[in-house]
Q: What sequence folds into this?
């Protein structure tokens, strides 16, 4: 966060911004722990076979291939999780630098999907192939999207859909988040969302429809 922003009237404090970092880190490390547990169990199974090759089930070539494939799959999954966490951590480096909204949204989606999974809600990302560069506070944009997602998940039911899409429109990049929520119910109201979006350098339009609610987050395209 820049000195100018620190001096400006902020809709939230540094403690709140840090809390968001902790929420994401805790969620990711929980997932990493699950991945490491699978790898550890698979390696332990091979050790058991090697310790008693003549007793119990034989360690066939096919069985060994299955175990190593499972280890490799989860190793790659873990590498991907760490890369996303690293990208998230670096989003605080240059608060007002231009950044690629496509990769930011992919990163955000990978780190927050677990929150939707815990409620058995489907989270769908629609990201265009063409790169869209925007100028805003990359860390705060991630936090804003998380707050909106959290709001939608409050009343979401099993198998509900939360869709997040990205498009360029005139001089802005627009991130649209939509779900079945018909009214904002928590103390984190639409005015708060509008304030933190403005603080990050963008604008918010909220549209209520019979099918649910849509958040339109607009941020200026990088020149």
A:
């Amino acid at each position: 966060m820049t000195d100018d922003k620190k001096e400006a009237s902020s809709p939230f404090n540094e403690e709140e911004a840090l809390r968001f970092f902790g929420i994401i880190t805790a969620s990711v490390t929980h997932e990493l722990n699950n991945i490491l547990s699978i790898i550890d169990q698979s390696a332990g199974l091979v050790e058991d076979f090697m310790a008693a090759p003549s007793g119990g089930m034989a360690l066939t070539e096919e069985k060994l291939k299955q175990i190593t494939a499972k280890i490799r799959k989860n190793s790659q999954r873990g590498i991907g999780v760490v890369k996303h966490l690293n990208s998230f951590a670096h989003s605080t480096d240059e608060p007002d630098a231009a950044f690629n909204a496509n990769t930011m949204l992919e990163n955000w989606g990978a780190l927050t999907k677990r929150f939707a999974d815990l409620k058995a809600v489907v989270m769908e990302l629609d990201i265009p192939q063409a790169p869209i560069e925007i100028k805003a506070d990359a860390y705060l944009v991630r936090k804003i999207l998380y707050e909106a997602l959290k709001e939608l998940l409050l009343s979401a039911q099993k198998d509900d859909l939360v869709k997040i899409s990205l498009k360029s429109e005139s001089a802005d990049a627009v991130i649209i988040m939509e779900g079945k929520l018909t009214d904002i119910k928590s103390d984190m109201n639409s005015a708060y969302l509008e304030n933190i979006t403005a603080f990050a350098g963008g604008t918010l339009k909220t549209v209520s429809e019979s099918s649910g609610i849509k958040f339109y987050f607009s941020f200026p395209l990088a020149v």
About this structure: Residues 1-8 have pLDDT under 50 and may be disordered. The first helix runs from residue 3 to 7. Helices lie at 3-7, 14-51, 61-89, 101-118, 138-154, 190-199. The domain at 98-220 is CATH 3.30.565.10 (Heat Shock Protein 90).
